């Protein structure tokens, strides 16, 4: 992976990442395509209406729904889903965490029961990478041990030890594959754990960066029960221990405010289901705060969702029409609402990049947050 630092503004950064399926300019938000697609959208929407250079696919779900052999048959997720941009695939660690009672932690991985048919499976660091090689992911995540917060310190210590062990095994396996001439365009990211304990975050980060050969680093295990302020303090205390010349990815976060605050602290990459999930549940983001489109007051409102937005939805449809679609249970609502919310997030990070290049990110962030808090 080629990484160019285009500009910095205090801790905020603008990078260009060169990957096999195109360049990514950061800060970047990655729409979540859990099962190889973003819910309610197709590859045309993603490429044309959103111009998203990278989306996220989920290793756990793609493994259970498609299987390794089918993905290999189609030459990976890009051809299978007809999306020419980049893919980042997570490791399935979050699904292991969220499945709760269906999961058993082993020294060599995670044993779980399929939520589809109850069948038993084991994810090891090596198997998770084999699935991601079959996906042909441009960026792959190592298997990690995620802990919900609050948690006992002993459990968090266990988590960072296991995460470091699995990261080392993943890296060794990946470097071996590369020595065989495989995995030439698949890049591997490690995941920092440690809860909100600053010292444990430092230990986790140093353990992983000492391995040196990772292509990037994620900050995991946040937005899982702690307060927003605790999250920001944890990010701020972790960033100094991550390399300047490699991308930093905050996993599963979050609100527009979370993203702006994290960019200011030095984070480059984000993903979250919030824009699409909120869209499906009638909550839409605008430059002047959130709209709950099911509210009766929008029934005769001829204005676009956001007069300042140039997305496909805002350029073609009124609040009244979207209100009608939602209340009528029309499936086209989910597409139009998802396009708008994802466009809002992608515009947020694109504008953030421009502000960093112009050395005025702090001013941009303050004005943006003030406007969003005003309400519609």
Automatic annotation (TrEMBL):
<dbReference type="GO" id="GO:0005829">
    <property type="term" value="C:cytosol"/>
</dbReference>
<keyword id="KW-0328">Glycosyltransferase</keyword>
<comment type="subunit">
    <text>Homodimer. Within each dimer, one monomer is responsible for RNA recognition and catalysis, while the other monomer binds to the replacement base PreQ1.</text>
</comment>
<keyword id="KW-0671">Queuosine biosynthesis</keyword>
<keyword id="KW-0808">Transferase</keyword>
<feature type="binding site">
    <location>
        <position position="309"/>
    </location>
    <ligand>
        <name>Zn(2+)</name>
    </ligand>
</feature>
<dbReference type="Pfam" id="PF01702">
    <property type="entry name" value="TGT"/>
</dbReference>
<keyword id="KW-0819">tRNA processing</keyword>
<feature type="active site" description="Proton acceptor">
    <location>
        <position position="90"/>
    </location>
</feature>
<feature type="binding site">
    <location>
        <position position="144"/>
    </location>
    <ligand>
        <name>substrate</name>
    </ligand>
</feature>
<dbReference type="InterPro" id="IPR002616">
    <property type="entry name" value="tRNA_ribo_trans-like"/>
</dbReference>
<feature type="domain" description="tRNA-guanine(15) transglycosylase-like">
    <location>
        <begin position="11"/>
        <end position="373"/>
    </location>
</feature>
<comment type="pathway">
    <text>tRNA modification; tRNA-queuosine biosynthesis.</text>
</comment>
<feature type="binding site">
    <location>
        <position position="221"/>
    </location>
    <ligand>
        <name>substrate</name>
    </ligand>
</feature>
<keyword id="KW-0862">Zinc</keyword>
<feature type="binding site">
    <location>
        <position position="193"/>
    </location>
    <ligand>
        <name>substrate</name>
    </ligand>
</feature>
<dbReference type="InterPro" id="IPR050076">
    <property type="entry name" value="ArchSynthase1/Queuine_TRR"/>
</dbReference>
<feature type="region of interest" description="RNA binding; important for wobble base 34 recognition">
    <location>
        <begin position="276"/>
        <end position="280"/>
    </location>
</feature>
<feature type="binding site">
    <location>
        <position position="314"/>
    </location>
    <ligand>
        <name>Zn(2+)</name>
    </ligand>
</feature>
<dbReference type="InterPro" id="IPR004803">
    <property type="entry name" value="TGT"/>
</dbReference>
<dbReference type="InterPro" id="IPR036511">
    <property type="entry name" value="TGT-like_sf"/>
</dbReference>
<comment type="similarity">
    <text>Belongs to the queuine tRNA-ribosyltransferase family.</text>
</comment>
<feature type="binding site">
    <location>
        <begin position="90"/>
        <end position="94"/>
    </location>
    <ligand>
        <name>substrate</name>
    </ligand>
</feature>
<dbReference type="GO" id="GO:0008616">
    <property type="term" value="P:tRNA queuosine(34) biosynthetic process"/>
</dbReference>
<keyword id="KW-0479">Metal-binding</keyword>
<feature type="binding site">
    <location>
        <position position="340"/>
    </location>
    <ligand>
        <name>Zn(2+)</name>
    </ligand>
</feature>
<dbReference type="GO" id="GO:0046872">
    <property type="term" value="F:metal ion binding"/>
</dbReference>
<protein>
    <recommendedName>
        <fullName>Queuine tRNA-ribosyltransferase</fullName>
        <ecNumber>2.4.2.29</ecNumber>
    </recommendedName>
</protein>
<dbReference type="GO" id="GO:0008479">
    <property type="term" value="F:tRNA-guanosine(34) queuine transglycosylase activity"/>
</dbReference>
<feature type="region of interest" description="RNA binding">
    <location>
        <begin position="252"/>
        <end position="258"/>
    </location>
</feature>
<feature type="active site" description="Nucleophile">
    <location>
        <position position="271"/>
    </location>
</feature>
<feature type="binding site">
    <location>
        <position position="311"/>
    </location>
    <ligand>
        <name>Zn(2+)</name>
    </ligand>
</feature>
<comment type="function">
    <text>Catalyzes the base-exchange of a guanine (G) residue with the queuine precursor 7-aminomethyl-7-deazaguanine (PreQ1) at position 34 (anticodon wobble position) in tRNAs with GU(N) anticodons (tRNA-Asp, -Asn, -His and -Tyr). Catalysis occurs through a double-displacement mechanism. The nucleophile active site attacks the C1' of nucleotide 34 to detach the guanine base from the RNA, forming a covalent enzyme-RNA intermediate. The proton acceptor active site deprotonates the incoming PreQ1, allowing a nucleophilic attack on the C1' of the ribose to form the product.</text>
</comment>
């Amino acid at each position: 992976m080629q990484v160019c630092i285009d500009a910095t503004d205090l801790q905020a950064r603008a990078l260009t990442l060169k990957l096999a399926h195109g360049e990514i300019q950061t800060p970047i938000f990655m729409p979540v395509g859990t099962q190889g697609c973003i819910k309610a959208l197709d590859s045309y929407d993603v490429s044309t209406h959103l111009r998203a250079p990278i989306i996220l696919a989920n290793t756990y779900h793609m493994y259970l729904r498609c299987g390794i052999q089918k993905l290999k048959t189609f030459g990976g997720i890009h051809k299978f889903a007809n999306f020419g941009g980049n893919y980042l695939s997570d490791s399935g660690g979050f699904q292991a965490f969220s499945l709760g009672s269906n999961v058993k932690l082993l020294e060599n991985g995670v044993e779980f029961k399929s939520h589809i048919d109850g069948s038993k499976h084991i994810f090891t660091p090596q198997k998770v990478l084999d699935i991601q090689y079959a996906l042909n992911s441009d960026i792959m995540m190592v298997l990690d041990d995620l802990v919900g917060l609050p948690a006992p310190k002993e459990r968090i210590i266990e988590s960072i030890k296991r995460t470091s062990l699995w990261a080392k095994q993943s890296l060794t396996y990946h470097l071996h594959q590369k020595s065989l001439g495989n995995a030439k365009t698949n890049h591997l990211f490690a995941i920092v754990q440690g809860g909100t304990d600053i010292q444990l975050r430092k230990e986790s980060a140093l353990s992983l960066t000492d391995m040196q050969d990772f292509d990037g680093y994620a900050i995991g295990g946040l937005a899982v029960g702690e307060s927003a302020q605790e999250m920001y303090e944890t990010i701020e205390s972790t960033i100094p221990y991550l390399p300047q010349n490699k991308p930093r990815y905050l996993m599963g976060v979050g609100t527009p405010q979370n993203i702006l605050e994290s960019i200011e602290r030095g984070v480059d990459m984000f993903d979250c289901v919030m824009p699409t999930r909120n869209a499906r549940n009638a909550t839409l983001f605008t430059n002047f705060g959130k709209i709950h489109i099911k509210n009766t007051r929008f029934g005769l409102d001829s204005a676009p969702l956001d007069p300042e937005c140039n997305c496909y939805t805002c350029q073609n449809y009124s609040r009244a029409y979207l209100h009608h679609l939602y209340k009528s249970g029309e499936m086209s609502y989910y597409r139009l609402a998802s396009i708008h919310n994802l466009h809002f997030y992608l515009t947020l990070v694109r504008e953030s990049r421009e502000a960093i290049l112009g050395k005025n990110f702090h001013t941009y962030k303050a004005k943006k947050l003030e406007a969003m808090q005003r309400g519609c």
